[in-house]
Amino acid sequence: MSKLSLGLVAALLAVSGVSVAYASAKTEYQHAYQKASAEHHKALKLQNAWTTTGKTLKAANKAAAKGEYGHAKALAERAYKLADLAVGQAKAQRTAWHQEVPK
Predict the structure, then answer these.
(1) Residue 6 domain-assigned?
(2) What is the number of domains present in the chain?
(3) What is the rounded CA–CA span in Å between residue 64 and residue 75?
(4) Is residue 9 domain-resident?
(5) pLDDT in tens, 58-68
(6) CB burial string 49-86: b at 16+ within 10 A, e below
C-alpha cells in the first residue's frame, strides 16, 4: 500500500471514530432526556412539578439542537435529579402535613 493510501485509510478511520462518538453522545443525551422527561411527568401527575425542571429540559433541548450533546446530557441529568426530588417531596408531604395540624 502506498503512503497516500495509508493516509486516506487513517483519515477515514479518524472521521468514522468522530461520527461514532458523536452518535454515541447523541444517544446518551436522548436516553437521559427520556428518563428526565418521564420523571417530570410523574411529578406533574402528583401536582408537584418544579418550574426549574421544565426550564432545564428546554435548555437541554436547545443545547441538543446546537449539537452540544455533552452539555445537553448534563442538563437532562440535572432535570432528572430535580424531577426526582419533586416526586420525593410530593410523597413525603402526603403524610407530613398531619404533623403540622394542631390537635
Answers:
(1) no
(2) 1
(3) 10
(4) no
(5) 999 999 999 99
(6) bbeebbebbebbeebbeeebbebbbebbbbbbebbbeb
Contact present, 63 and 71 (Cβ < 8 Å): yes
Taking the C-alpha atoms of residue 51 and residue 82, their distance in angstroms, rounded to an integer, is: 10
Report yes or no on 15 lying in a domain: no
The rounded distance, in Å, linking the Cα atoms of 24 and 7 is 26
- DSSP string computed for 43-68: HHHTT---HHHHHHHHHHHHHHHTT-
Residue 38: give the domain boundaries: 21-93
User: What pLDDT score was predicted for residue 8?
Assistant: 56
**What confidence score (pLDDT) does residue 43 get?**
97
Contacts of 64-70 spanning 24+ positions with Cβ under 8 A: 64/26, 64/29, 64/33, 69/22, 69/25, 69/26, 69/28, 69/29, 70/25
The amino acid present at 48, given as its one-letter code, is N
